[in-house]
Amino acid sequence: MKKINITETVLRDANQSLIATRLSFDLFAPILKELDEVGYHSLECWGGATFDSCIRYLNEDPWERLKKIKTIVRKTPLQMLLRGQNLLGYKHYPDDVVRKFIKMAVYYGMDIIRIFDALNDFRNIEVAMEETKKQGAHAQGCIVYTVSPIHDIESYIKLAKQLENIGADSICIKDMAGLIMPRIAYNLVKSIKEVVNVPVILHSHSTNGIAEMSYLKAAEAGVDGIDCAISSFSSGTSQPPTESMHYVLEDMDFNTGLQASKLKAVNDFFKPIRDDFSKSGVLDSKVLTPQPEALTYQIPGGMLSNMISQLKNQNAIDKLDAVLNEVPRVREDLGYPPLVTPMSQMVGTQATVNILTGERYKMILKEVKAYCKGEYGKAPGRINEELLEKALGNEKPITIRFADTLEPAFDKAKEHLKDTTTHDEDVLSYLLFPQIAEDFIKNKNMHPTTEHARREYKSQPI
Questions:
Q1: Distance from C-alpha of 67 to C-alpha of 376, rounded to nearest angstrom
Q2: Shortest CA distance to 177 belongs to which of 17, 371, 306?
Q3: Longest distance between any two alpha carbons in the chain, whole Å
Q4: For 45-79, how does the pLDDT look when each residue is reduced to its tens digit (9 = 90+)?
Q5: What is the SS3 assignment for 203?
Q6: Angle between the N-to-C axes of helices 434-444 and 424-432, in degrees from 0 to 180, rounded to the nearest 10
Q7: Which regions of 25-111 does DSSP assign to beta strands (E)?
Q8: How many H-runs (helices) and E-runs (strands) does the chain carry?
Q9: Distance between CA atoms of 242 and 50, rounded to whole angstroms?
Q10: Segment 179-207, tens digit of pLDDT
Q11: How confident is the model at residue 459, as a pLDDT?
Q12: Of 118, 139, 207, 282, which one is least surrounded by beta carbons within 10 A?
């Protein structure tokens, strides 16, 4: 009986996709022991947008959050999502910052680091992969899946082989927009399994109502793992429900290793939390139902929920359909980048600006200009010449790995913060989000209980 590992995403991607990462530690802390007993392959609990959300919205230290989870969850490996050279921010950081961040994350308890580059430019994940393995953690390399005239199965097979060659301990097909069709899932998983000797995982979203079918076809093709969310935080823009996938896979003679009775306890715990977010309006019903039209505009779950939130704040929710129609046009202009962070934010925001200003590229985001210049890596396809000329102006494009042009930054940031903090993790938080982290660090370090806990935990060298 083949084992299919299941990663639970409720603490990261599920709540990021459904409620814009507003799930605080205090809300889920009481269920951590039960989560640890279910039998999950891993518990995704950090990375992605959690770091930003902790500081910006939840008034939590993300490092403390990870430490507290690890203190309780001792059996199940903890997993995070890392954006390669972007880390958890929205720009590329120099190698010294990347290495320091990964070293600190592993020290604080991270076991599996899923590493991707938004453009599948693997020059931008090599340092992160190398450092993850150096620190003794599991380095999972990602293929960011998308659909376009320039992406096909053969191109993804080549990427899988590249990941294995640079040391990936496993490979994740990251289908952030729920685009992978069942037949493609079967063929892609089967083809990749034939050319690599490491486990293959499929990550998808239920945005378009096809993820469950694609998971089953991937299982038939020999997939080693899938990502699911406990049912009360599943479906819609989140992942397929853990319990449903468990029962179906067991019926198909696969072994998930999960205990159904414990899954029920976990789901019962999260139901009232979901209901509270629904009553407050944070959980919008639009993200809970399948939206097959997304097969056209290819917007991932977190991007869609955030876009709805942004348009509401601008009193422009009536423009949602126009923005969704503009997204694929912007994406084509930019050379068909996969819509995953940070590209999803760039394309989505630029599409929104185009609609709200009433003129395409009347204002070009600075991040889009940086992308056109080559600061995020090599564009998958050709960028629209008119847009490129307008974005670059008199500047020349970058052809080398952008991180090679960056000066080391950690020591300089530490010197800047020397009167505010002596903790390296605070320096890393500042480097990722300087606009909001400095005041957060000042306020946090005035709290004696938190400060004592941090000194105690840092008693061992890293």
A1: 31
A2: 17
A3: 63
A4: 999 999 999 999 999 999 999 999 999 999 999 99
A5: strand
A6: 150
A7: 42-47, 78-82
A8: 22, 8
A9: 21
A10: 999 999 999 999 999 999 999 999 999 99
A11: 29
A12: 282
